[in-house]
Amino acid sequence: MDLAQRIDTAFEPISNAINAIVFFSIDVFGVSLPLVLIWLVLGATVFTVYFRFINLRGFAHAVELVTKPSNRRQNSGDNAPGEIPPFQALASALSGTVGLGNIASVPVAICLGGPGAIFWMILAGLLGMSSKFAECALAVKYRRFASDGRVLGGPMYYIEAAVGRKTNKSIGKAAGTAFALFTVGGSLSFFQVNQSYAQFSSVTGIEAPLIYGAIFCAFIAIVLLGGIKSIGRVTGILVPMMAGVYLMAAVVIIALHADALPGAVASIFKGAFGFEAAGGGLVGALINGVQRATYSSEAGVGSAAIAHAAVKTKEPVSEGYVALLEPFIDTVVVCTVTALVIITTGVHEPYLYIPRSDIVGIDLTSAAFEGVFSWYPVILLISVLFFAFSTLLAWAFYGAQAVAYLSNDNRQLDIAFKIGVSTLLSFGAVLSISAILNFIDAMLFAMCVPNMIALYILLPELKNDVKAYDQREQNDLS
Length: 478
Description:
Radius of gyration: 21 Å
Distance between the termini: 72 Å
Largest sheet: 2 strands, antiparallel
Strand order of the largest sheet: 1-2
Mean pLDDT: 79
Strand content: under 5%
Structural class: mainly alpha
Number of helices: 22
Number of strands: 4
Shape: globular
C-alpha cells in the first residue's frame, strides 16, 4: 500500500462520519438537498430582507468605498486602525473564493441541473452579498489588536461574544473554539496544489509532483510568513490580473458565438422554471445552482471575514459594504461568464444529466476555451497557478488567525503553523486525496453553523450600527 492509499484509508472513516453529519441530506423529488444548504440560503434571505436589500441599495456605495479609499469614514491612511487598505482586503478575501471553484463548479452545476441551474446560482450569489456584509462588518467591529499592532480578527471573536451573552462565557468560548478548529481543518487546501499540478503536468509533460509541490509551497511560505500586509500586496496584484486574463478570453469566446447567445439565455430561463423535465426540472436546477453558488462564494461560512478584519478603517459597517462586492464578482460575474462560454459553445451537451460519479469540471471549461483557442491550455495553466497560489495564501492565513485565537497569539506557534501547513500542502501534488478532500469540505461547511448562529444573535446590534453609519453619511452629503 503506497503513501496515498494509506492516507486515504486513515482518513476515510473520519471523513465519512463528519460528512454524514455536516452534509446530512433530504430527498426532494429525487434530488439530494443538504440541510447545510438550507441553513446558508435561509440565512442569506433573512439578512437580505432584514437589512432592506442592502445587497442592492448598498452596491453603489460599496464601489465608491473601494475606488475612492481616501473616503474619510472608510479609510484614513496610516491613522486608521488596521493593516491593509480596503482594496487589498477585498482582493485577499476574493483570492480565497475566486479560483478553481469558479472554473470547475459551473460545469458541474450545468451537467447536474441543466442550464437553468445558472439562474439560481446568480440569485444565490445576490442573496449571499447580504451574508458577506453582515459577517465582515461584525468581524471588523469585534477584532482585537496585538501589542505590535497586528490585527487578530475573524468570526471566532464575535461568535464568542454573541454566544457568551446568550448563554455564558464558557459556552461562548467553546463556540469560538469550534469555529477556529474547523477553520484550521479547512486551511489544508490540498485540492489547489493537486489540480494545479494536474494542469501543469498535462501542459508541460513534466511529472515531478514532489518537486512541484515543494517549490510551489516554498513560495507560499515566504509570502505567508510576511503576514497579511505581504499577502495583501501579492493578492492585490494577482487577483485582478488572473481574473482579467480569464474574463477577457471568456468575453472573446462569447462574442465569437454571439449567434448562440440568445438561445443560451433562453435555455437558462427555461430550465430555471422547470420547463425542461430532465435533471429534476425546477427542483434539480434550483438545488444544483444554489449549491454551487454557495460552495463558490462561501457566503455565510465566515472565511472572508478573517481577511476583512485586517482592513484600515474606523467604520466597521463600511467594510461590510466593501465585502458585499465579493459574491457579486465571484458568482454573479465570473460564474455567469463561465456558464455562457460553456453553453454557447455547446461543450456541455454530451454531459447533461449524467450520473454524478461521471461528472467533469475543469476539463469541460478547458474544452470550451480550447475549441476556440488551441493554445488556451497554456493560458489556463497560468490562470490555474495564480488561482491556486492566491487561494492557498488566503486559506493558510485564515488557519493562522484561527491558531492565534486558539493559542492567545503565541508567535512561536504562529510561525510553526505557517511553516507546517506549507510543508503539508507540498504533498498535495502526489497524494490521492479523495477522503481528505471530503474532510476539508466538511470542515468548511461546519464553520457556517456557529457563524450563522452568532449572526442571528447580533442582527439587532448590527442594524443599529448600519442606521448610525447611514445617518452620518447622509449628514456628510447635506
